[in-house]
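Hi everyone, sorry if this is the wrong subforum. Our group has a chain we'd like a structural model of before ordering constructs, and none of us has done structure prediction before. Sequence below.
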Amino acid sequence: MTTGALSGITVLDLSRLLPGPWCTMMLADHGARVIALENPRYASQGAFPDLINRNKEHMGLDLKSDTGRAIFLKLAARADVIVEGFRPGVTDRLGVGYDHVKAVNPGIVYCSITGYGQTGPLRDTPGHDINYLSAAGALDLMGSREAPHVPGLQVADIAGGSLSAVSGILLALFHRERTGRGQFIDISITDGTLALMHLALNISQETGKEPARCDTLLSHRYAFYNTYETADGKFVALGALEPKFWVAFCRATGLERFEALQFDDNRREEIIQAVGDLIKSKSLAHWSERFNAMDLCWSPVSSLSEAMDSRLFREREMVVESRNRNGKPAKTIGVPVKLSETPGSIRTAPFSFGKNTDTLLTELGYTPEEIQTFKEAGVT
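Answer:
Right subforum, don't worry. Here is the predicted structure as tokens:
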């Protein structure tokens, strides 16, 4: 029996790719019943099936057909949350938009995730993570002085989109708990990405200067917050922002002469070079042994495989053994939000396409004959 914090909450997921399905995975991990719906004519598994479709059910359903639309609205009448990621206006044209669902379920929490929001000059513009980072001014702060660098993970999609959607859904459910009323949630991935820029904006307002790549307080400008290569080709990340950590680092490395020069703009390049030369003289193992014995803000720069094998994430249950949709053993990423009374969990492997269609239709009261008719007509 599911006992997560969202046990008893039913979510219909019409989204694709990463932002929506990542959001609904978080809800599912914490006990919500998540039913993903996808047109059987496009029998894809989405872009990331084995990673973000655990703990979910799946139904093949053609929303362009009258019968498919009727089935969806029967599901929606029983649901608590709907998540969709189409361009603005698509669900309304299909007859499954917020107003259509609200008519059969006034308490519905309806979350739409788009690149640029339901309003504004870019509402109909397509995009991906790189575009949302660009529009929000975030990409301009990533990379070398010569050019922006695209990050190797989807910052905008997840931090700007998925997490904003999770927050919005939980806020709306809390509001419904008090008032009985549902509402529409307009999540713009670009809005959420701009919301990550508070520190950069604050620094800009204080200095009167436009933030520049590799030249802000926390981006390679100073030695105390930087990355350095070791003798064996590994890298360490130093985060000695507070003076006490910088002093401790200087004393641990014999660089006491720089203790009082942490923020000295006239000598910062000299200090970066000195620290870099020193770190490059010894192996990562050497620095690990020395730094781990002290109270320092430092870490080795781990690869993904190293992170997945680390004691930290194993003991934190962030790397767990699971199964892929073919039933084979596979490592997966665990549940990051740790609740003491209602912990999240990984209960089922990722779905296969249409796996739960018959069961869900039976729950809605359809007979085996009707279900077979739906299949023959391509509705399910």
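For your construct planning: Residues 10-195+316-377 form a domain with the Rossmann fold fold (CATH 3.40.50.10540). The first strand starts at residue 10 and ends at 13.
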